[in-house]
Amino acid sequence: MISRTTLGTGLASLTFALFASVAAHATVDFGKPGEKINLVVGYQPYYTESWSGVVNNGKQFWKKYLPAGSTVEFQVGLQGSVIVNAMTGEKQHIGYMGDMPSIASTFRNLADRGGTDIRIVGVAGTSKQQCNIFLVRNDAPEFKSGTDAVKWMDGKITSAPHGACTDRFVRLAYEKVGIKPASYLNQNIEVITTNFRAGKLDAAAIWEPTATKIVKAGLARRAASGEDFDALDGAFIVMLNDLIQQRPDVVEAWMEGELDSQLFLADLKNAGEVAKMAESQTEQIDKKVLWAALYGSDSAPGSVKLQLDFVINDRVKSLLKDATAFLYSLPKKPAAAEAIREGGVDDSIARKVLEKRGLKSPLGEIKAQPLSAFKD
Predict the structure, then answer these.
(1) HEC profile for 38-80?
(2) Domain boundary residue among 228, 254, 285?
(3) Would you give per-residue pLDDT tens digits along the chain (376 residues)?
(4) Which of 195, 228, 261 is the last residue of a domain?
(5) What is the C-alpha separation between 312 and 212, in angstroms, rounded?
(6) Quick one: 179 and 41 in the same domain?
(7) Around Cβ 142, how many Cβ atoms within 10 Å?
(8) CB–CB of 54/45 below 8 Å?
(9) What's the CA dihedral at 136, 139, 143, 146 to 10 degrees?
(10) Quick one: which H or E segment has residue 293?
(11) Pick from 104, 342, 115, 361: which is nearest to 255 by CA?
C-alpha cells in the first residue's frame, strides 16, 4: 500500500501552492452596503462540477442583483490551488474550486499560513463522476466492473494531478481494492494527455471535461468512477471574510445570481446553451465534448452526473468531514485540524436566499442523457 510519507510527498504541489509565504494580511475596503463594487472572481471552466460559474459569467445573472454600476471580472484558474493563492493575496474575492483546495483555504487565517480569512459560503455541486474518473489505455482488457479495472492497475504505471480531488479518489480506490501500482505519478492534465498519446501510461484519474476530451480523442477509455467506490466529490463557492463582513448585501446578491445559474444548469433544455458558453470560455474543446462531460453518457444513461446542492446539506457535510480528515492525516497537513475550524463554513446567506425563493436543497439533479440527444 501507499505509505503516508509517500502520500504526503504526493501532495507537495498543493502544499507549496497553498502555503507559500505571502504578504501580511491587510483588510480590503469593499465599501458600504448599497454602494457599487468591483469584484474579481476566480473560476474553473475546465472543471465541469463548478460550471455554475461559467453560466453566471455567460448569462451575467449577477447584474440583476449587484448594486448598479458594479463590475465583475472572471479570471480562469486551471486548478483550485491557483485561485486560493490569488485569494490569499486578495487579488480575487470570490472563488469556485474543488473540495480539497476549498477546505485548505479555510485554514488560511492562521498566522503561519498567510493570515487571510477565507470561508466556504455555498456549494456549486456534488458528484461521483465529475472528478472521480479513471481512464485506462486503449489496449487494456475489457473489465466487468470499475473495481476489476482498478485491480488491473496493480503493478502498472498510473497518474493523477496530486493534491486535487482526483488524488483522494485514487488513494481511496487503491486502498479499497488492495493494490499497489508500480508508479503513481504526479502529472497535470496536459502531461496525462500527452502520455496517453505516447503510450507511456497504463491508467490515470482526471476530472471532467478533460476526461471526456481524452476519450473522444481516442487516447484512452473510461474504466471506473466514484460510482464504483461510493466516492463523492464536490465543488464550492468560497469568499474572503472581509467581503462577507463588510458587504452582506453583495454576498446575498452573488448567491442570488448563483441560484439562477444552478437552476439554469439543471434544466436540460439549456444543455446546448451551457455547452456553447463553456466552449467560449475554454480553448480547444468542442461543445459536443463539453455537453457530454456534463449531460451525456452511453455507458451509464440515467446516472446522476451532477447534483446541485447550493447549501451545506447532510450529504455535503459528510463529504467535508471525510475530506478534511483525509487532508489532516497527511504529514504536511493542508488542513490544520481534523475538522474545519468554527466559522470556516458559513452558508447562512445561501440558506436565506433559498428560503426567500421557496426552494429546498438539492435544487435538482443532472442525469445522463444518451449521446444521441446532443443537438448542435
Answers:
(1) EEEEEECCCCHHHCHHHHHHHHCHHHHCCCCCCEEEEEECCCH
(2) 228
(3) 444 334 443 444 444 344 443 334 557 899 999 999 999 999 999 999 999 999 999 999 999 999 999 999 999 998 888 999 999 999 999 999 999 999 999 998 876 667 899 999 999 999 999 999 999 999 999 999 999 999 999 999 999 988 788 999 999 999 999 999 999 999 999 999 999 999 999 999 999 999 999 999 999 999 999 999 999 999 999 999 999 999 999 999 999 999 999 999 999 999 999 999 999 999 999 999 999 999 998 777 889 999 999 999 999 999 999 999 988 887 778 888 999 999 999 999 999 999 999 999 999 999 999 998 998 7
(4) 228
(5) 28
(6) no
(7) 8
(8) yes
(9) 0
(10) helix 287-295
(11) 361
Per-residue burial over 320-359, b if 16 or more Cβ lie within 10 Å, else e, is beebbebbbebeebbbbeeebbeebbbbebbbebbeeeee
Burial annotation 199-227 (CB, 10 A radius, 16+ → b, else e): eebbbbbbbbbbbbbbbbeebbbbbbbbb
Specify the DSSP element, H or E, that contains 23: none
Would residue 98 count as lying in a domain? yes
Q: Domain range spanning residue 257?
A: 4-21+32-127+232-373
Q: Are residues 239 and 267 in the same domain?
A: yes
The 3-state DSSP composition of the chain as helix, strand, coil percent (nearest 5) reads 45, 20, 40
SS3 245: helix
DSSP code for 127? E
CB 362 within 8 A of CB 308: yes
Is there a single domain that holds both residue 102 and residue 45? yes
CATH number, position 142 = 3.40.190.10
The answer to whether the beta carbons of residues 219 and 288 sit under 8 Å apart is no
Q: Per the structure, how many domains does the chain have?
A: 2
- Farthest CA pair distance, the chain: 62
Same domain for 120 and 190: no
Distance, CA of 312 to CA of 194 (rounded, Å): 38
* 8 Å CB contact between 18 and 104: yes
